[in-house]
Amino acid sequence: MPHIPMDSSDSGRSLPGRRSVLGAMAATAAAPALLGLSSPASAAPAEQAQALPGGGDLGPNVIVFGPSTSGIQAKLDEVFRQQESAQFGTGRYALLFKPGTYNGLNAQLGFYTSIAGLGLSPDDTTINGDVTVDAGWFNGNATQNFWRSAENLALTPVSGTNRWAVAQAAPFRRMHVKGGLNLAPTGYGWASGGYIADSRIDGSVGPYSQQQWYTRDSSVGGWANAVWNMVFSGVQGAPAQSFPNPPYTTLDTTPVSREKPFLYLNGSEYRVFLPERRTNARGTTWGSGTPRGTSLPLTQFYVAKPGVTAATLNAALTQGLHLLLTPGIYHLDQPIQVNRAGTVVLGLGYATLIPDNGVTALRTADVDGVRLAGFLIDAGPVNSATLLEVGPAGASANHSANPTTVQDVFVRIGGAGAGKATTSMVINSRDTIIDHTWIWRADHGTGVGWETNRADYGIRVNGDDVLATGLFVEHFNKYDVQWYGQRGRTIFFQNEKAYDAPNQAAIQNGSVKGYAAYKVADSVTTHEGWGLGSYCYYNVDPTIVQHNGFAAPNTPGVKFHDLLVVSLGGQGQYEHVVNETGAPTSGTSTVPSTVVSYP
Q1: Residue 31 pLDDT > 70, yes or no?
Q2: CA 418, CA 442: separation in Å to the nearest integer?
């Protein structure tokens, strides 16, 4: 999580700073009601003896509003008061708005809060008002505004501009802003975002103090500035390619994309829409009528509530149901195992999976078209070898026509409590699309320390032809990204090396100083990346030297465009950007070292 303040009047220079460690950040939110509690041992036989029902109640933490609902603003304010500073709390909420028009609302979003419209198009649900994220809870510093989302709404902001000052894991999807969008907090304090997809902003987007941002398959009326790394793919109205001055990386289209599944109302019936795959995508999926794709009735989903066992979730999957995870925390004593092609696992309100005994939270078979979306995996206190596995080891089937998608699936090790995992996410299946993830070894909160929340590797990609759009991976003890598959592609990467390395020896990689943030295996012959950044802030031992941010075989088929490394305030330094290429960082001024093209 970068943490350098930017002067919005200073086009790109930064001032050194430090995001304070919030070891005492309290879990102020009350735990959501645990429904359907049962012990795994006693429940499993009975659960599997009769068919589990599909559909049903969405639970107490999904709050549904209609245009005639009374007291909407009061309820929004109540949830916000509870969640505003509950960074590591247990509250989880989804705020859903039925199609129609709503006037005079300001939905302020705190932690683990999602707001969404229930129409097929964002324009079906219009709020004449705002959906606001600001940073008053943290003295105007927006670098910890994680874990919240806005989807599928049209906004007409009261002032003409909506404020969305977020950091990682805060997607803005399928939104129509009938005005401008301000990505900075009040006072233009520090900010570290962010991600927009399938959205239309009629006015201009003002990043101001945002250090980096990725926008995909959208339309903007303008873009005001850039700090370190602003990346666009398939965005109408995006600024022209100009990295590193200003640092815009612009691709005309996104090679492959498929939007996230979403809940909507067809009359009084809840359904889940499954957008179709697009190639060479540009602009939104919804601008010219009904979006293209298919839908499933909620009756084909097992609607899970916190307290349900992993055995029940697996029984539902075996029965042929999809999973809808309502907001809350789910403890797992065995992996959720997805074996059927086309299975959807959709979380609402940052539903959170915690493996208690060192298991993997979720695994998929090597099948077509699995959709994993909208949930958080929180490592448990017993080390897990992996937390999420897409496909088994050795997976080799071709899924190019119907890939698995991993969207808004976030991983956390530590912060809410001690957690450990050797490798957080492993992608074995070919053609997988990783569309917006934040894989985070916590640098603050509880259960944080070099060995306390040990996590050596963030993501390992073994499958061929994998595409990552919006890859955020931070603070791992060794490599943050390891890429072994052929023909992999990444559009936008944001990384910060682990703060808490005690000394140079702790990160020594054989004869190499430090582990690269993004490592392409020596066996890879074809790989490409656009708009990739790595930052270091070795505040425990500022004399630590990191040899490079990026390491890859030096071969014509492995290509990088628009790379940067940054030493934050001189706390540690990089010798190079990629391999032996790129100038070293130096001194205490936070100025990126860049490479426009490699090799």
Answers
A1: no
A2: 10
In degrees and rounded to multiples of 5, residue 407 shows phi and psi of: -130, 130
Question: Is 78 designated active site?
Answer: no
| Cα 563 to Cα 228: distance, rounded to the nearest angstrom | 10
Reduced 3-state DSSP string for 276-332: CEEEEECCCCCCCCCCCEEEEEHHHEEEECCCCCHHHHHHHHHCCCEEEECCCEEEE
* 267 Cβ neighbours under 8 A, 6+ residues apart: none
d(CA 182, CA 300): 39
Q: Which residue has the tokens 């559909």?
A: 55
pLDDT 10s digits, 498-508: 999 999 999 99
Eight-state DSSP code of residue 49: H
149 neighbors 173 (Cβ within 8 angstroms): yes
Catalytic residue among 474, 496, 575, 580: 496
Report residue 175 CA to chain centroid gap.
17
Which residues have a Cβ under 8 Å from the Cβ of 529 and sit 6 or more positions away? 489, 490, 491, 493, 518, 559, 560, 561, 563
Site of tokens 């040990």: 454
> In this predicted model, what pLDDT tens digit does every residue of 372-406 receive, in sequence order?
999 999 999 999 999 999 999 999 999 999 999 99
Q: How confident is the model at residue 288 (pLDDT cuts 50, 70, 90)?
A: confident
* Alpha-carbon 341 to chain mean position: 24
Side-by-side strand order, sheet with 269-275: 262-266, 269-275, 293-297
pLDDT at 290: 76
Backbone φ and ψ for 201, nearest 5 degrees, come out as: -115, 110
Q: What DSSP string describes 189-241?
A: --B---EEES-EEEEEEE-TTBSEEEEES-EEEEE---SSEEEEES-BTPPPP
**Interatomic CA distance for residues 381 and 418, integer angstroms:** 5
Pairwise CA distance, residues 338 & 246, whole Å: 44
Q: Say what the pLDDT of residue 291 is.
A: 86
